[in-house]
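worker-03 picked up job from queue 'complexes'. Input manifest follows; two sequence lines, order preserved.
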Amino acid sequence: MPTFFERFRAGLQITTPAVWVLLLLAAGSSAAVLSRHRHRTEGGVLWTFSRTHAPGYEPVLKAWNQAHPKNHYELVLLDYGALENRMLSGFLSGTPVADLMEVERNIAARAFTGPLEDVGFTDLTDRLKAEGLLEKINPPSFSPWTSRGRIFGLPNDVHPVLLAYRADIVEAAGIDLGRVTTWDEFFAAMRPLMTDADGDGRPDRYILNVWPTDMATTEMLLLQAGGGLFDADEKPALDSETDARVLATIATWCAGPGRIAVDAPEFSAAGNALKLQGVVLASLMPDWLAGVWKTDLPTMAGKWKLMPLPAWEPGGRRTSVQGGSMLGIPKSTRDFESAWALAKRLYLDPERNAAFYRQTNIIPPFRESWSQPVFDQPDPYFGGQPAGRLFIRQAPQVPARTSSPYNTLALARATDVLIALADRASAGRISDPEALIPEARRLLARAQAEIQRQISRNVFLRASS
Amino acid sequence: MKSYRTEPSWVPWLFLFPFLATVAVFLAWPLAQSLFLSFQQTYGPRTSAWVGVGNFDFLLHDPLFWKALGNTALFAAGSIFLQLPVALGLALLLNRPGLRGRALFRLVFFAPSLVGLVFVGLLFALMFEKRSGLVNVLLHAAFPAFDPEFAWLQVYVMPALILSALWLYAGFNMIYFLAALQNVPAELMEAASLDGAGPWQRFRHVVLPEILPVVSFVVLLSLLGSFQLFELPFILLGGPGPDNRGLTVVMYLYQTGFVTGDLGYASAIGWVLALIMGSFALLHRRWLRREEAS
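worker-03 finished. Artifact:
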């Protein structure tokens, strides 16, 4: 009887060619993966999530690579979610990450959840101070990248918010928005446009594009009013009179007998259709969104104009802020100095900033760039207004924002409160915000307690705060 | 006398090794690790702090967890008390003798389960869209007073999920019931008819007892499947939905572990979920034994 080893050898002999083909394929693919990894580590890598930013970086990188042949950089455009996952994997588990990363605000905040010493980005605070950049960059632009007093990124933008309105319809109706300064005045002036021409019992147009489920607009309006979700010490601050008043007011805009709002979400066919059909008369407009509309709604060129946001009260802030990205340098970067030099080349060059504005409509935070002529050029999309200058005028008043990793959670809870208030306004046919404020205070207090409870159990934030 | 040479004692272990290694690496070790993690707070896999039973204590007082559990239980109730009766009804219809086009109907009813959860999620998201969605367009056409801007996915989140799952799974469960119905002995049905039993009595006293093992199996599968609900609300609502009205336990686990990065708390949620599902399986087993004994 053959021994075990003899049978084992016999087994090997009957191995079919298919098995050898599979083994060869496995070995070949492993070798390919390994060689690709080695190729990657030869130069630096810049990750970005933005399809609109990337084309603007390509010429800069081309020039950089020509000037620094031994220190070249490769631009990699990643999906938003992929960048987030790869960044977190790198920071949390040590998998390879880029040498320079452009990340959006919500992604960056994820890096600030743990102990300060575990933040995967290099602390740039001292470098920014030493090079005098803190004074040269619009101060509110640092806030989303500042955690526990330390700055972890170079800001790309200011993202001031204006109000875009249908100038063709408004001017044809003889409405003068030039003297409007508050939301109340704005709605009073625009209300005659909410007519029911088709006789179906519903207005054919709505004054403002805002909805309780639209978290971004809710945050913009809260920040504009001087409220918000966190205070300067990154402690939850939902439970405030200002937040209650703002949410109660938005609820009456969206529901109940005084409804003036419509839900026309950005980046959606249904939302864009409502804009094209003329259902939306006005919409909050961050600078970057103006660029998106030019691409997504090109047939509406000339129909819109921009004005500062109406304030919550006379003399109040006429702008807000939404979105944002930064360039961060991971601690694992191969060469900090070259990454820092490239970051400055990408973000702090007035000519490049002007070109970037032409391409994306994004206002740079680097104040030296604000005198570039491009910002004064008439913008045909907005009725020939100098859109850049209108945004820049509001840039210094842009509110500061939190970098708390709990911001998304807090915003979700604030949105829940707004939805509950809108439901109440609808069910009770309430149009007076005052009637909703007590309920808003109660719900916000509960939401704040919930956020506080979540934060309190984070032993890492506690230990390093 | 013929002599047999025995293999060395380690040979069986050698053959068992691939299985044991796979179980150890992909089952035993992750289970042990997740149990260990559930007593820690983590920031990714490298930074952790021992919190004892803190995660479980937090979970007991976590309104989001209870909301997720409530939503999941509601979905499970919808599956059992709506989806399964519909599936059984379809199976009974298709099992009628002399039915023409049985194969075609079977294919039509079963077809939704071929397309997958993601497709169903997208399809129903479009159908429930405000203004342009099929549901609102039809309702507005039929009843002009109906507001075409009515937001189904904001107001009736769980009913929308239950309805989507009904469309997806009713045909799938129907196949189980149909197979069971086709195994009910014809002579039993004949005997019941001769004894004067009507259709309801035949169903209640002959068909149901015969298919009860399959029914109990399908109920258990639906219950376990419902408690693992994740993809459908994730696609249909793009997350937990407004006011967390579509948050399920597994979605909360995912958010905690992979969005917030707290693998410790996510593990605690996972273990509580495993306990809940384990209890269902145990109860089912007990009930089955009792039925067999009686």
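worker-03 released lock.
The mean pLDDT of chain A is 91.
Chain A is about 45% helix and 10% strand.
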